[in-house]
Amino acid sequence: AMAQVLRSILCTRAGAPGAMALPMFMKGVLCVDKEPKVIEVPVPQPGENELLLKVEAAGVNRADCMQAAGNYPPPPGASELLGLEVVGTVVKCGPNASRHPEGTRVMSILAGGGYAQYCVVHERVAMACPETWRGGEPAKSEELCAIPETWSTAHQLLHLVGKAQENEVVVVHAGASGVGIAACQIAKHFTKAIAIVTCSASKMQAAKDAGAAAVVDRGDGTGWAAAVLEAANKEREARGLPAKTGVELVLDPVGASYCEQNCEILAMDGRWVVYGLMGGMTAPGPLLAKVLTKRIQILGTTLRARTVDYKAELSDHVSSQILPLHVSGDFRAPVCKTFKLEEAADALKMMGESQNLGKIVLVP
User: Fold this and answer.
1) How far is CA 281 from each of CA 62, 119, 199, 255, 258, rounded to the nearest angstrom?
2) How many CA atoms within 13 Å lie on the side-chain side of 218?
3) What is the tens place of the pLDDT at every residue in 117-143?
4) CB 149 within 8 Å of CB 109
């Protein structure tokens, strides 16, 4: 169903001399009884070291679906509005904010509030947008919006949490998702790891195009383990590496329904990074016995509630190491479809049903 639009009269307030007049109210997307509604809310005010952005594009992420379903509330102090990544222009700087002056176009992750006409971000987490894009054309907000949350998450999973190393086999579940496509490219370019993807048959080509060393059809989700192990040793052989029983690292947004097969494919002392629960929260069978026998390390991680310092470190890495490779065209972050803010319910439905191949973007 289309999100309901609740309207009120917009007023304006004067800012500093020469500054643009800002409205007192704005449209934003709030979940009401597990339904996303577009409502009128006050324009937020930037606090210490914060920036107020006029939003040009907001990325849709699976975490937004979880919040809409009532399973992923925002951390304390964060906006109740949906939205974890944006591209926008700085229209007001809070006290002591000096990194990005008014008029600067930035992209950023945030703990909530991105599905709106205006939002507040921390200046240390915001990244200046490149002026030009692949081939020298102007950088479009919709394309830039496919980067902040997705590529920060992929870098976090591979390097900060998963500690991926050269020549290790990394199994990337949901490998044709935004994070999966990013992880494949990062693994190939930076880590020199062997990325093996599991995904649905209709999305296998996208994973191959992203640089996956091998792609395994997950089928109905119950019988991919043997194919992954076979692909792992085939790719090791291609690199002149010895065969090995199992893989070193698994990046898993699925959870319960993949638990038994993850235990089957992981090598001794393997690392299993859990960053989503699309397949359920309750692990079946004697999971702990398998974890103990193989000394498997289970590493749970999220990004939303991390500290500003942690997010700033991620943003610095993305800005200095990853963005230049997008500008040059070496990295790709495909956009699937753009929706209007009033169509947020349709965008979330598309994401929830895994219909997308590439980023879903909302435009206020």
Assistant:
1) 16, 32, 20, 6, 11
2) 22
3) 999 999 999 999 998 888 788 899 999
4) yes
**pLDDT of 155-198, one tens digit each?**
999 999 999 999 999 999 999 999 999 999 999 999 999 999 99
Tokens standing for 81? 């509005």
Q: Is it the case that residue 33 has pLDDT exceeding 60?
A: yes
DSSP for 21-72, please give it.
Answer: PEESEEEEEEEETTEEEEEEEEPP---TTEEEEEEEEEEE-HHHHHHHTTSS
What is the C-alpha end-to-end distance of the chain, expressed in Å? 18
| Six token digits for residue 84 | 């974890």
Sign of the CA dihedral with 147 first, then 148, 153, and 155 last? positive
Contact 157, 179 (CB under 8 A): yes
Please check whether residue 98 is in contact with residue 31, taking contact to mean a CB–CB distance below 8 angstroms.
no
- The residue that leads in pLDDT, 291 or 13, is 291
Q: Residue 8: is its pLDDT beyond 50? A: no
User: For residue 208, with 0-12 CB atoms within 10 Å meaning exposed, 13-18 middle and 19 or more buried, which class applies?
Assistant: middle
* Residue 199, φ and ψ in degrees, nearest 5: -165, 175
CA distance 176 to 165: 22
Q: Are strands 359-363 and 85-93 parallel, antiparallel or unpaired?
A: unpaired
Rounded distance between C-alpha atoms, residue 10 and residue 21, angstroms: 12
pTM of the model: 0.91
What are the pLDDT digits (tens) for 289-320? Answer: 999 999 999 999 999 999 999 999 999 999 99
Number of alpha carbons in the 13 Å side-chain half-sphere of residue 130:
25
